[in-house]
Amino acid sequence: MSMNNLTWSDPGFRPGFDPGFTGLINQHLLASYDAAVGHWRSGLSDSAVATAVATFALSRIDPAKYASQVRSGLEWLIADQNPDGGWGDSPESPSNLSATLLAWSALSLSDDSPAVERAIAWLDKFLGDHAPVDIQRGIRQRYGGDLTFACPILTMCALAGHLGEQADAWQYVPQLPFELAVMPHRVFRFLKLTVVSYALPALIGMGLARHTLRPSRCALRRWLRERLRSRVLTIVEHMQPANGGFEEAAPLVGFVAMSLAAAGHRDHRVVQLAADFLVKNQRDNGSWPIDTNLDTWVTVLSVQAFTHSGVPGIPDEVQRRKIGEWLLGQQYDEMHPLTFGAPGGWGWSDLPGAMPDADDTCGVLLALRRLDMVDENSTRAAARGIEWIMRLQNSDGGIPTFSRGWGKLPFDRSCPDITAHAIHAFVEWLDDVPQDLHGKMRRAMKRMMGYMHRSQTTEGGWSPLWFGTQQSSDERNLVYGTARAVLSLLAAGEERSSEMLARAIDYLLLAQQTDGGWGPQAQVKPAAVEETAMAVWALADAGESAAAQRGAQWLAQRVAGDQLSAGSIGLYFDRLWYAEQMYPLVFTAGALNALSAHDAREEPAALAPH
Questions:
Q1: pLDDT range class, residue 574, cuts 50, 70, 90
Q2: What fold, for 47-289?
Q3: In whole angstroms, what is the distance from residue 310 CA to residue 323 CA?
Q4: Nearest-angstrom CA–CA distance, 318 and 287
Q5: Complete DSSP assignment for 370-433
């Protein structure tokens, strides 16, 4: 995106308030709208994790048939290797253990010995050695007791021959209890599973592979698992979407496919559909993204950025109606086979592998309001969405992502920025949904507010679940999480002077760097576009115009230098990093529109043309 035609020589120019600057950003955002489909399209970064897993899976399914895809995937991986010999999750990311182990495993298919040697050197430096026991220990330190991504990594390492001879390699891979998949889903929360709710296909696939290649010494357990083989395969088949893409995620699809192939089911329909999905989603450069797209999410963010705080929204009524109808058409009408979620929610994409989640459901509810979609059909859909969120509410009052009360693993836990998002959506629709929902909504919001108070950090902010930073060892992106929560709580009517919001706003003010920008945490540099834009957006809404103006000036300098490039702040499933090219543009538009709205309220004269 080139914006170098902008000039900043006018001494009276004030970025964020100047209609020309804000208008140009809005024009770029509106120009990225795809009128043919009626929504915005996301632009996820290439992913070393997805590319390694997909490449290796295709080689395990049929190396001759998919030779071209495997070759181009390996070429991309070799070209993407960092100078230190490792790989990060996305091209912008520093090397990490998970991505490097997966890429190294994929390179077992390659004869590029220099790339392999550099990878081994990185692992030896990071782990002390690349022996099986060191790999297992490193993965345990990374993921603790959560086997959702730990077990797939170890499974692929075993299949690649990196954990020793096949007879011994599987001792380092946990035996997942795939036989539990036959239990009624209502009892899953009581089984203390070591994988999260959405990972049942992987639990079954990898559990079957481990059972096949290193059976239990217990005869009864071996008999039971073998007896249930056909039944659990039927369960996976039922869970698989029509396009083959579990969660639209190449890594999950690849892990399931390679595991089932290793268990002797290479020709099974699930594996063949998975291969079709992987082939279809490989990019021209040989890579795969971490997920097919986030179209619903970037669309609702774009709508909110355009129509924030009284700023005129999308000017074309036909466009508004088309976007609204597209969003309404994505509401789930049936129980989802992966999360067992009731109908009523929305997912991150309109593709069949997406799943209903709380953040996208709240986003759609708010977008429908911003698009003036408050007719009978939309109100009915909103009521169903609100009821879906209330069913999701955890006992601590907070809102998780997918499933209520499964345990303490990620994405089944309550999350503060999603909870604040839900409060905002409930307030927006409270007066328009059926009267019998009002009491339930107010009680749910009261519990949500209690959770927000309890989850505020000692610094005064909130840590989000789906966004983070690779610049800090704790990976918390407090600036993003706090800004998101502040925006929602202010819009929902929380008093700016309340202790909770005052502490959060003070944190954002203290986290601003001397150049006017924000990084992911106070004292963590350098500043970045996404965090700066979100902080400006929140502080403009909070009336902290001086700090917001300085942040807008920082953004203006990046726009002038054509530096609205996306950073890898997005956290996908299992702590995988991604960059989304729409985030800088969307967040910057929201920030500048918030400043323009503040200017219209406080300084009308400033809107006059220069």
A1: low
A2: Glycosyltransferase (1.50.10)
A3: 19
A4: 37
A5: HTT--SHHHHHHHHHHHHHHHHH--TTS---SS-SSS-SSTTTS--HHHHHHHHHHHHHHTTTS
Q: Which amino acid is at 11?
A: P
Residue 95: DSSP 8-state: P
Residue 276 tokens read as 């079709």
Q: Encoding tokens for residue 57?
A: 């899976």
For the chain, the residue count is 610
**Distance of alpha carbon 74 from the chain centroid:** 25
Write the pLDDT tens digit of every residue in 244-272.
Answer: 999 999 999 999 999 999 999 999 999 99
Tokens of 326: 């597209």
Place of tokens 């543009």: 585
Which two three-digit tokens encode residue 566?
């996306």
Please state the rounded mean pLDDT for residues 414-430: 96
CA 309 to CA 595: how far, in whole Å?
9
In which element (H, E) is residue 325 found?
A: helix 317-328
- The CATH number of 16-44+456-610 is 1.50.10.20
Cα separation of 63 and 68, whole Å? 9
Rounded Cα distance, 249 and 256, in Å? 11
d(CA 501, CA 215): 55
Question: What's the rounded Cα separation, in Å, for the pair 195 and 188?
Answer: 11
Angle of helix 478-491 relative to helix 499-511, nearest 10 degrees, comes to: 140
Contact call for residues 331 and 345 (beta carbons, < 8 A): yes
The strand pair at 288-289 and 570-572 is best described as: unpaired
168: left (phi over 0), alpha (psi -120 to 50) or beta: alpha
**DSSP-derived secondary structure for 515-574:** TS---SSTT--S--HHHHHHHHHHHHHTT-HHHHHHHHHHHHHHHHTT--PPPS-EEEGG
Strand partners, 131: none
Q: Where in the chain is the domain with CATH 1.50.10.20?
A: 16-44+456-610, 47-289
Q: Looking at residues 22-38, what average pLDDT do you find?
A: 89
Which pTM value belongs to this model?
Answer: 0.91
pLDDT band at 306 (very low <50, low <70, confident <90, very high): confident
HSE on the CB side for 597, CA within 13 Å?
A: 24
Look at residue 106 and tell me whether its pLDDT is greater than 70.
yes
Can you tell me the distance from the alpha carbon of 399 to that of 423, in angstroms, rounded to the nearest whole number?
A: 10
- β-strand pairing of 33-34 with 39-40: antiparallel
Digit-coded pLDDT (tens) for 148-167:
889 999 999 999 999 998 77
Please state, rounded to an integer, the average pLDDT across all residues of the chain: 89
For the ranges 172-176, 470-474, 484-488, which has the lowest average pLDDT?
A: 470-474
Buried b (16+ CB within 10 A) or exposed e, 13-34: bbbbbbeebbebbbebbbebbe
CA distance 253 to 391: 29
DSSP letters spanning 6-45: -----TT--TTT-HHHHHHHHHHHHHTEETTTTEE---BP
Q: State how far the alpha carbon of 312 is from the alpha carbons of 194, 306, 362, in Å.
A: 48, 7, 22
